Fold these 4 entries.
Entry 1:
Amino acid sequence: MAEREADRSVSQTVRAQLALRDLVLSGRLRPGERISELQAVEITGVSRTPVRMALVRLEEEGLLEAIPSGGFMVKAFSERDILDSIELRGTLEGLAARFAAERGVSSRDLEPLKECLNEIDGLVRQDPISVEAFSSYVALNARFHALLTELSRSPPLIRQIDRASALPFASPSGFVMAQSALPEARQILLIAQDHHRVVVDAIENREGARAEAIMREHARLAARNLRLALRNRTHLDLLPALALVTAG
Amino acid sequence: MAEREADRSVSQTVRAQLALRDLVLSGRLRPGERISELQAVEITGVSRTPVRMALVRLEEEGLLEAIPSGGFMVKAFSERDILDSIELRGTLEGLAARFAAERGVSSRDLEPLKECLNEIDGLVRQDPISVEAFSSYVALNARFHALLTELSRSPPLIRQIDRASALPFASPSGFVMAQSALPEARQILLIAQDHHRVVVDAIENREGARAEAIMREHARLAARNLRLALRNRTHLDLLPALALVTAG
DNA sequence: TGAAAAATTAATGTATACATTGCGTATCCG
DNA sequence: CGGATACGCAATGTATACATTAATTTTTCA
């Protein structure tokens, strides 16, 4: 199973990190299961040193949990944990939007966001929305959120948002693909896009409280998507990250 | 300078982490300065492997910054970065307070907080407040904030708050000692303690918005302290962490 | 004299051998 | 038969040798 002769341009540490992350997110390692270094060495084909580095990084990402006596295990998340992570991300993005609004942004800085908005408009115009369009939406949505975060011009906040969004189910696009199979899909996307427009408008008019509130509400769409997807359990295969979710 | 024959009960990694953290916070390593592994080995007296671990951990803490080509350097912070970090921490603590209020807490859970409040009352009663009392206040204040964070009963949020408070100048007690030399000292402490009482009251009455707002405002006291301390530059020696702050 | 290229040096990245600690098991004693 | 202790195994923690890559200096040519 080891992948030898892999790309030389990336370090062994990164390669191990990618391989182990995939393994965890795919659910082939159960939550709570210990992942030993030697086991990881066999899987990734690199030596213990970079494996160890990768494990530490994945713990920092939030996918693994350190065992007090040493070593790591796959972290388990409850549905509540996921909802809280989404609310947390929304709160941070709200703060970023408020900073942007209060501190002011040049029209030059807003340009790429508006461009992003227009491209998304082109996607959601079709009815029904194709799977490819959903895929494009995920990318554009991620770009929009990244640009918005940057507008805060606050390195500490940007750092924290990146860390909060590292968990796949907490990221802005975490549950977009999940809704692609739902009947409410298009409507939810239209609402999300309206949020996008509102927050840009609020920032432009330096309405800090409004910008903050709408980003918080925007994140709650992800929570709604999650609940809908869990109700229609037919398309859960679109959400590999849910392999980490345990009962409760 | 190496500290050999140190306590056997802690790992070499932890020892290196402590030593290097001290070195950075004391300002003996300038912001932007590269800290090589070999150099760290000489300083800490442990081998490269645990030193490397410690460097990764300190980067995660936010004290170091990874150099793209490899290695680490001491991170530089602007005054704005610090103010943003404080606002960020206040926002997260606000969210924790709101969660606690909305979800409800038992009187049993509130007990240790109220105990904490009473002990702080005993300290701020004296006028003027002794340096020892300030020291005790720092400990009790940290305890209060930790207990409050726990009340959210949200592991993802608790984790994020811990990470945000890891930077000494962003922690709840980061600038308390700085004000000990200020004439406004006692008044600020009285206000802070009022905030403490208000947030407990809000949580008890399940007033989420109020609990959130007061915690945000509470954090801004730290920002005020920082600005006061920077104006009276006479007692900056109480704040070793400011060694990391560069102009701008 | 300047700039470019090559060589040297010093740094990090990687692998592995060794040490130590925690954990499970089996045995012995009560 | 039950529990505690001791033993052995397997895991992580540590040190160091080696490989590779980045930085610096020196040398050479224009």
Note: Residues 1-6 of chain B have pLDDT under 50 and may be disordered.
Entry 2:
Amino acid sequence: MSSIKDVAKAANVSTATVSRVLANHPHVRQEVRERVLAAVAQLEYRPNLIARNLRSQQSNTLGLIVSDIRNPFFTAVSRAVEDTAYAHGYNVLLCNTDENPEKELLYLQLMGDEQVAGVIFSPTLQTLNRFHELNLSFPTVLIDRSLRSGDVDAVLLDNVSAGYTLAQHLINQGYRRIGAIFGEASTTGRERQRGFEDALRDAGISMQPEYLRFVRPRSEAGHSTTLDLLRLPQPPEAIFTSNSLLTAGALQAIRERRLQMPEQIGLVGFDDTAWASLVQPAITVLAQPTDEIGRSATELVLQRVADPQRPTRKIILQGELIVRESSVEQRVRA
Amino acid sequence: MSSIKDVAKAANVSTATVSRVLANHPHVRQEVRERVLAAVAQLEYRPNLIARNLRSQQSNTLGLIVSDIRNPFFTAVSRAVEDTAYAHGYNVLLCNTDENPEKELLYLQLMGDEQVAGVIFSPTLQTLNRFHELNLSFPTVLIDRSLRSGDVDAVLLDNVSAGYTLAQHLINQGYRRIGAIFGEASTTGRERQRGFEDALRDAGISMQPEYLRFVRPRSEAGHSTTLDLLRLPQPPEAIFTSNSLLTAGALQAIRERRLQMPEQIGLVGFDDTAWASLVQPAITVLAQPTDEIGRSATELVLQRVADPQRPTRKIILQGELIVRESSVEQRVRA
DNA sequence: AAATTCTTTGTAATCGATTACAGTAATTTC
DNA sequence: GAAATTACTGTAATCGATTACAAAGAATTT
């Protein structure tokens, strides 16, 4: 591997001049510039990014910290983050935390050690609450979750509105007794619950507390909780889930009980996963704009890298209701 | 951020001594060692990894280059790669190439610039063919695809055997006229085809060339090709797909034609995706050991980092046949 | 023609670690 | 008790870039 010294020697100039040519500085004679460029080409010189980063005290790497890349939502977001980052000349370092606060702290520290330019992060409630004590040395943009207090950049779905839309859809289809299963780990579940309850209230439907459940956002929990709900003396006519893993679990439970969807039971959920349209009946979902979330988060973090003084911003995106067969009643209920 | 100089000053020693304490070198007096450690703790000193990498001429980062992280196979593998890498103190830089050879070269060059310790890579046939001209400056382990010539490390499924097992399963279930759709971009499809054909031959079934298709490994291609096959004067009794996207497309096509699975048409594919067990009937698949693939590939690349002279190795893993309803005939066919 | 400004280039410091080498003090060997 | 060895620590070079500063020459102004 040739270094800037080799190029300087070959072009018969100093390393400073080589650096200036490469950085496109003015004040270099045309003839010299060409000589340097020729030497660069001849030696196939490529700048050492590590040395550059050390000197300039900042790297061209972004950190992406998610709970689990296998969650289809994060898979899709991460793809968008990477595309956007690479388009701007940045790399992406990926970490999975499994919603484990210790891992979260560990990886945040690692990001500091690696001197990343910025981080896109989807934290647990626990880490969120201590977020300001962390005193991170790099700009951070939160995705999917956020602090009430407005002093962190964030890109989020309008969860309240999304929950409202999805619940309202069920109500419009004639469902009245609606069971709902929310994830307990994040702020996201709470907000979707708010929208859900608002929709019921606006429709004049009284909430039955035993229809509301908060669980670990896992397929198993979705499964067992749905079975629970279906076992109630007066079981719900539809199930609202706040997360695609919960939806998968609920679907399994409904299958086991051999209930007809959507006639005997309706089902709706979040995220337009690959399987949501492949199962029969296909599942009605509130799709998150994953591309947009990833892209916006990356642009936000890069803007803050460029201008650390810029006031913090939250970008709130709207979801899209995709109506499929799992919630559509041919004859509207009584 | 405090540097090693600050620690040296605080502990009243030279930077060399601090470095020695931190690297656990012998020949440091116990009393001095403790003084340094105290200073480190007091200043919350963390070594600058960039400086360390520059000096030691190697980084603690691995590159992972896949065609698309949204492909469930790569999602699962990447999760395993990251877990293993972080357990060994390495980070993971992720890149998506979309099977675009230009992007592949670009990212390989980037990896060189970033001085990654090693790369795990799933190349297109095109890049594979020029692989040795590339003269990469870092160790590379191929996954999912490989060169015939044995001089690159690789971790692969035993694709021939996997194709054989899956085809044999269909034959055992009584299917005789079997259509097969393979991806055209990689060596993987070819090998699975070999196994497929061997199984038919061993069972004394003659191959009909119009049942064999090679297409872009996309869901749309799976869909249209399956419709094609079903339109033949004598349509196949079962469809064999070599990739989960093709399987999804085939499933869609079968649904549109309202054929009963497995009675009127059988379906099998590769990779145990989330949806394969959620759809009805659930799909029989040959599951790849994704965790094992990711873990082995990472360990292989780290071993080569440690010892560049080590002879190259190929790790061939066996898949697992998971029989579900999409291919199980209650009454064996005539 | 002297003073001023601008252009072009090089020298050397710097980023923050690691480590070869050297030097001093302590210990062991004969 | 002198020589040899070992233990400990510091000085300074090094990795490969960037950049402040200086300096020399050319161009412009007065």
Note: Chain B has twelve helices and twelve strands.
Entry 3:
Amino acid sequence: MSTQQAPSGDSDKPQVSLWERLERPAPAPRTTLTAHRIAEAAVAIADAEGLDAVTMRRLAADLGVAPMAAYRYVSGKDELIELMVDFVYGQLPLGAPAEGWRDTMRALAVHLRAMHLAHPWTVRTTTPFSLSPNQLAVPERAFAALAGHGLDADTTMAVFRTVTGYVHGSVTTEVTLDALRRKHGWSDGHQTRIGLAPQMSFLMNTGRYPAYQRYLHEATRKDDPDWQFETGLDCVLTGIATHFGL
Amino acid sequence: MSTQQAPSGDSDKPQVSLWERLERPAPAPRTTLTAHRIAEAAVAIADAEGLDAVTMRRLAADLGVAPMAAYRYVSGKDELIELMVDFVYGQLPLGAPAEGWRDTMRALAVHLRAMHLAHPWTVRTTTPFSLSPNQLAVPERAFAALAGHGLDADTTMAVFRTVTGYVHGSVTTEVTLDALRRKHGWSDGHQTRIGLAPQMSFLMNTGRYPAYQRYLHEATRKDDPDWQFETGLDCVLTGIATHFGL
DNA sequence: ACTGCCGGTGTACGCCGTACACATCAGTGC
DNA sequence: GCACTGATGTGTACGGCGTACACCGGCAGT
């Protein structure tokens, strides 16, 4: 029996999205808890102690309420995290629209990276492109900047996805390496190389990675993440420009 | 103060890396469990039911052993996941070295994407660049292909990171969208748009996303992920070529 | 035959997300 | 003024998770 439109017990959720609920006038402005306060507290925990420290119980404790209280505002932990991500995106500085498409995209990329670096847990939870009010502001800005250059809609999307894809992947590497560094308490790149040496040297001594080993000996600037990011970003932007004749 | 060899309670782990242990001759070939069998079983679970279904208990059940048995091979769940990821990278087809740097990098990117699409859970656990034997084979291949073009080591790394960053970020978007589709049982892009409509239309009706809304009306090819990926990839490669005069 | 060690077992603990019934309290219609 | 009602926060409890730790059986070297 195909799950035919059960007239009552339908298959899906209440179907009012988190974002829609959020913007409805708060029925009672007299409450101690708000979605905003919840998001804020959760983000604070994640920033300070990592995403794993964000627990419904811990969150409740920080807010001074019972563990289940937050469930009046989010349907579960997944929605809590969506809320946190949207909260962080809400702080993206999108103020100045810049002039050319390239400057706009570049600024967008740089700000996105800064956001991820300020809240490293976001790289584990965000997709480069997803649907929440503040996340949608990103493609909105990009599309507006790219309009009027003769690109059709699909190509515009491809350009957007290329840039944000690069940003996301690139910053994921960066954040992961940072976390590794911090976990072991290595301060600079030099210490990192020393700390990594034991595990690394075994692999290198297998002789299976000659080209990579050569890199390890020759590299000098590998501790400058800004340079790495911006160099890659400029490659991506240049590629887009030449590829689409912008 | 150099952390002087604390004679007893030293600060770090036993300090023999997973990979080193793995390659030491299996002391007793008579065992029912091996790291390989564990990785294989865990990957099978993740492929079939998602990463969340991979549980020490579930894994043990599938292997026909007690829940704690796997802990003789991995130090905890984190190492299990490292093992899984390395296992998957071990299946990357790195066979033919191709001729030019561009073809090599392009093939690498395409194969990496295929790998992530075949094991979607990897995008949540992998960083575009990390240290395990089979993961290291990727930069090794790339560095070998890029050698001899007059690029210094740092630039080579930047190129590598740019490409893998793009691949990782791009495929993360793709996998996430796929998961969303599958979760709701939407088969094609058309159904997806219909299913997404309720949640989407609220956001669109706010009037805050005019440029994005225009895209939604005009786009026609947005369901072709291959085209999107390869277009972006070609942009990235072209950008690298022009930027570094390759 | 004895012994030590390696691989698998069994039990148990603390923490997690969250379902569900209940208490409380603000604003409304009479 | 007051009972009513719905929204908001509480308390309790359950099942499942990762994993610490003590245990045991069987093979290896003597």
Note: Residues 100-188+223-244 of chain A form a domain with the Tetracycline Repressor; domain 2 fold (CATH 1.10.357.10).
Entry 4:
Amino acid sequence: MTMRDRLFDEGIQILSRDGLAGVTIGRLAAAADCSKSGLFAHFKSKQQLQIELLDAAAAMARAHVVMPIEALPSGLPRLSELVNRWLGWSRRAGLAGGCPVAAALFELDDLDGPVREHVMALESEWRCLLLALVEDAIAEGHFWQGVDSEQISWELCGIYLAHHASSRFLRDKTAGERAHIAVAALFNRAAQSTASNHIRKATI
Amino acid sequence: MTMRDRLFDEGIQILSRDGLAGVTIGRLAAAADCSKSGLFAHFKSKQQLQIELLDAAAAMARAHVVMPIEALPSGLPRLSELVNRWLGWSRRAGLAGGCPVAAALFELDDLDGPVREHVMALESEWRCLLLALVEDAIAEGHFWQGVDSEQISWELCGIYLAHHASSRFLRDKTAGERAHIAVAALFNRAAQSTASNHIRKATI
DNA sequence: TGACACTTAGCACGACCGTTCGTATTATTC
DNA sequence: GAATAATACGAACGGTCGTGCTAAGTGTCA
């Protein structure tokens, strides 16, 4: 295993456990057992390092979540399996902590710069994929025609974040079950032509 | 205005904008226009400072979200108004950034210590309040008797997190509308005796 | 064998980190 | 008016931060 591979491996672990702020040059160099300057030869700056690590994490997610579902039948089967693989993917991918992108959303919400823009691109790409799968489910007739696909994918993201907070911070063992119930209820709503799916003004 | 007040004011703003990691002794001292050692006389350690600032933020949330709804009729009216005030409370309370507690959930998920335990206590207290209001709505007959109150409050937290990420990171103007639609759909589901509310095993 | 790229280490830099110390100013109490 | 407590200050500590510069391997090809 080359030095660069070891830097990526250790870097993603630290990123997952301690977030972007935890990935410091000194710590990563010590974890990968090399000097700070040796590390610095690979990544020209700390921002570059952060961006490349986030990309590597996103590639892991793609390999564990997206690639395995591409052969499945379009529509609800594919979407359901994606969500199943999405929830808690980081643990199954061998990461010590949680999803680095989700954590970055809350870490960089008010801190502008190239890293934030990069996370924005990753997150947008993901939400586009989610939206496309929901629209496939509509096209296949698994969801009601008039359903608001952006609303459904938005709420899926909410369930994912609730699962992250519940399982990782609160360390609630029932988080997986709660998330699956919420997803089932959401899909059930999307399959029916209820008023909830196209109201524009909340009635509460 | 006393020095201590200024330290709290500036501290909560930094905490809201840049998270716990952004609240550094030097930065806060500069923002409040005092020396580092002068600041240190008020808070015996950095952890103490972090904990007191989180408490102050929680107190702000209580004043802006919880206190105003206590006089409202029990059940759905009180719960609905609480959720309305909860979503985006930090901006209305005058904070420059987002909800500090929500951000701390993702920042400290794998970092043990007294600060994490304090955030855990604040979050647990909040979820208990949410749960109690949902159960009031059941008792008042606004929600179906057999509804899983913990599931409903869990999903409410998900909508809150989605709203945070959507409005603060993605800076999506429609976040408020999306959240209200999701809440209305959730309350609608809770009001009906559908299967979605008590399935124990997801059907997906 | 020697020249050449590439990788890594060693070292030093200025800046900021949390923290402690001694001290000067100010307010309160006897 | 003197003693005491509270408050804020400047200076300094040992560390770590991100970032450069220089030099020493290391393998490839002529």
Note: Residues 7 and 32 of chain A are 6 Å apart (CA to CA).
